[in-house]
User: Which sequence fits this backbone?
């Protein structure tokens, strides 16, 4: 669908996420169409890695908090 008029979007994805190729394609299209998009890609991250215990999840949840507080 059309991206025109959408507000700023933020995408969190991991390189081991089954949806990563689609997320990358969307990011490329959104950037080409001038959409303001926040992009966070974790090397080795699987789908919903931010819900798992560990340092990477904590860092990502902090990033999500920062995005939501804007």
Assistant:
């Amino acid at each position: 669908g059309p991206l025109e008029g959408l507000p700023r979007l933020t995408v969190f994805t991991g390189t081991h996420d089954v949806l990563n190729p689609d997320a990358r394609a969307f990011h490329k299209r959104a950037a080409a169409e001038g959409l303001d998009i926040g992009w966070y890609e974790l090397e080795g991250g699987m789908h919903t890695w931010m819900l798992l215990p560990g340092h990477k999840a904590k860092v990502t949840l902090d990033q999500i908090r920062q995005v939501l507080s804007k």
Notes: The mean pLDDT is 93. The radius of gyration is 13 Å. The first helix runs from residue 20 to 32.
